Amino acid sequence: MLQFSKLRPMTTNREVFDQIAESWYRVRHWPRLREELEVLAQKWQGGKLLNVGCAHGPDFLPFKQGFELWGVDSSPAMLKQALRYSAKFQFQVKLVVADALSLPFPNDSFDWAISVAAYHHIKGKDERERVFMELKRVLKPGGEAFLTVWNYRQPRFWLKSKDQEVPWRLRGKTVYRYYHLFSYGELKKLLTKAGLEIITMSAEKSYHFPIKNFSHNICALVKKRR
Predict the structure, then answer these.
(1) pLDDT at residue 159, as a whole number
(2) 176 bridge partner residues
(3) Phi-psi sector, 171: left (phi>0), alpha (psi -120 to 50), beta
(4) What letter does residue 84 receive in the DSSP assignment?
(5) What CATH fold (topology level) applies to the domain 13-152+182-224?
(6) Whole-model pTM?
(7) I need a labelling partner for 179 at 20 to 30 A (CA). Which of 60, 101, 152, 215 fits?
(8) What's residue 6's pLDDT?
(9) If we measure between CA atoms, which residue out of 65, 61, 163, 198 comes closest to residue 116?
(10) What is the pLDDT of residue 171?
(11) What is the mean pLDDT of the chain?
């Protein structure tokens, strides 16, 4: 069973993901929210797409036909695995080492964006506000973005802090990744403050219980107003 702890001195998430990149590639080999992404690929039907926090790249798979693919991640080692992944599955992608807080693209650059399980690694309230403003900035007017974060109210985090270190076992040692757990209300507030229009906010499709508040993920589809 995974054990979650209060915060302790640790390396940065970038350093941790550099360490675990190869094992991450092996374990997280397919899109975890494939159904949601396939629906979006059908809806969007091509265009220039940015994957924020793309890691080793499995979430590109539903978009490999008809899209111009771009990925950013702060971990160079993860992007090395993304090159390996794109070669294996035969799709072209442009990859850039960059932080979600400062995306290296002009305003209005992308038709669409996705970010699966990335924004919950952003530490600091002001920084969490800035990343969504950056997302809005690089979207074209009318462009949409799909993003997911971990939900604070999922049962395993009841009575725990919103800020957690989540372990990953690696070659006889354990490293810890920083997570900020969101509530539906907090995510809605941040997205709205960034000026993004919320189209939908829901649990993942694999969650079948009637009360969405306890889902593992919070999935949001947002739009930059024209």
Answers:
(1) 87
(2) 167
(3) left
(4) H
(5) Rossmann fold (3.40.50)
(6) 0.93
(7) 60
(8) 42
(9) 61
(10) 82
(11) 93
